[in-house]
Specification:
Elements lengths: L2 H5 L6 H5 L4 H30 L2 H21 L1 H6 L2 H24 L4 H29 L4 H33 L1 H22 L12 H18 L1 H22 L1 H5 L5 H19 L4 H6 L1 H7 L13 H14 L3 H10 L6 H29 L2 H21 L3 H12 L3 H5 L1
Helix pairs in contact: 3-4, 3-6, 3-7, 3-8, 3-9, 4-7, 4-18, 6-7, 6-9, 7-18, 8-9, 8-13, 8-17, 10-18, 11-13, 11-17, 11-18, 11-19, 13-16, 15-19, 18-19
């Protein structure tokens, strides 16, 4: 199957994707769970600030809410491969709902902040396994129609951007409107609804492949995932590109508020790359999967370039345009994620997805910290430009050694068995 033939295929529509049995309720259940994450983070951060009036303590709360996501995705990855993903998802959502009830009790009784942090840590830690299981579930759901899966990855990426904004906005609004206890109870409801949907809609499927026994086998499975990922030419390069691109993606969001200063437009500037990313996802989704994958490196190289102009201290309107264009070019992450998922052996998807997710979380966190450090030691405008220049240099180094033939062959193999390909 040639690239030219692939370029002539019609990209599937969102309507076709939503008609896949079970996808819509699973998509909504994941959205509810994600909203619950953000509501919990913002609500507990507000509680901590109300008690301490300390920005440092509040920032620590948010940091604690992200660190377990990294640990949960990496350390709990083999769990996803050992048990049916339906069981992992239901148990994860119920366990997180119980954690939220514990937070409600701690808020009502003015419990120790140490215990608040511990329960919040557990809440996010368990979420790591749930996130990986959901990825495996959606991948299996489209096992007979890979181009539709690529469309689903695009919708999930777009929804993640929107859910981030909605979750943070709802979390802050709930705390102000109904108080932290009611806000947390609503959060509890999101996890219960997600568990019920998965229980009713998803069919239980046995796990594939062999598993190590006991704790030693668990550790061996985790180690084998690291070896398999590092030794796979395409997967390792895709993950590396995603990691180094994080610096260019994070810098404008991390330094948007300092750039805006006291003019009150910091939130708008932070949201601008997200809006651009949503538009980019809509645009790239109109192309065939082969064209999407061929655009990964060019779009990645272009993504940090507009941000270099921030060093010139342009007017605010120009800044918004630069941030928007950079966000638009982030669309390369959609085919990157879809191909990464489809190129992973089914028996290894749980642990590989978990490990790759933990790397992505760690890279994003390091990028935010790095951008903040550079911005503090220079100025926010120059900080964005420096981070973007470093990002561009790293992507250039990866691009010079990009395994184009391997990637092309992987894409051909990954999408060759779909119903859409057979019908074309």
């Amino acid at each position: 199957m040639s690239h030219s033939r692939g370029a002539q295929r019609r990209a599937p529509s969102y309507a076709e994707m939503l008609r896949v049995p079970g996808y819509l309720p699973i998509f909504l259940a994941n959205a509810f769970s994600m909203w619950g994450d953000y509501v919990a983070r913002v609500t507990i951060a507000a509680v901590v600030f109300d008690r301490t009036r300390s920005p440092l303590a509040t920032a620590t709360t948010l940091a604690i809410s992200f660190v377990p996501t990294f640990l949960g995705r990496s350390l709990l990855g083999p769990v996803v491969d050992r048990f049916p993903y339906k069981s992992v998802l239901v148990i994860s959502h119920i366990s997180r709902a119980l954690c939220v009830l514990a937070l409600v009790w701690l808020v009502m009784t003015s419990g120790s902040l140490l215990w608040v942090f511990v329960v919040l840590f557990l809440l996010e830690l368990i979420g790591g396994a749930a996130s990986a299981s959901n990825l495996v579930l959606v991948t299996d759901l489209f096992e007979h129609d890979r181009p539709l899966y690529a469309r689903a990855v695009g919708l999930s990426a777009m929804a993640e951007q929107v859910n981030q904004a909605l979750g943070l906005a709802l979390g802050g609004g709930l705390v102000a409107l109904v108080g932290p206890r009611v806000g947390l109870l609503i959060d509890f409801g999101t996890f219960v609804v997600a568990a019920i949907v998965i229980l009713v809609v998803v069919q239980s499927r046995p796990v594939d492949g062999s598993r190590g026994k006991g704790v030693r086998g668990f550790v061996h499975d985790l180690g084998s995932a690291i070896g398999d990922l590092a030794g796979h030419t395409v997967l390792a390069r895709l993950m590396a590109l995603s990691a180094v691109a994080s610096l260019g993606i994070a810098a404008p969001e991390a330094l948007a508020i300092p750039i805006a200063g006291q003019n009150g437009w910091g939130g708008v500037l932070m949201a601008t790359p997200i809006v651009g990313a949503v538009v980019g996802i809509l645009v790239i989704g109109r192309f065939d999967v082969h064209r999407q994958n061929a655009s990964i490196v060019p779009l990645a190289l272009a993504m940090p370039v507009p941000l270099l102009a921030t060093a010139l201290h342009p007017p605010f309107v120009v800044l918004v345009a630069l941030f928007f264009v950079s966000g638009l070019l982030q669309a390369f992450m959609v085919p990157l994620q879809a191909t990464f998922a489809l190129a992973t052996a089914p028996a290894m998807r749980g642990r590989i997805f978990s490990l790759a997710g933990s790397v992505a979380v760690a890279a994003a966190g390091a990028s935010y910290l790095g951008a903040g450090w550079v911005g503090q030691h220079t100025n926010p405008y120059v900080g964005v430009a420096i981070c973007s220049a470093i990002c561009l240099g790293l992507i250039v180094l990866l691009g010079l050694r990009w395994p184009h033939q391997h990637v092309t062959a992987t894409v051909e193999h990954a999408y060759a068995t779909s119903r859409s390909s057979q019908a074309a």
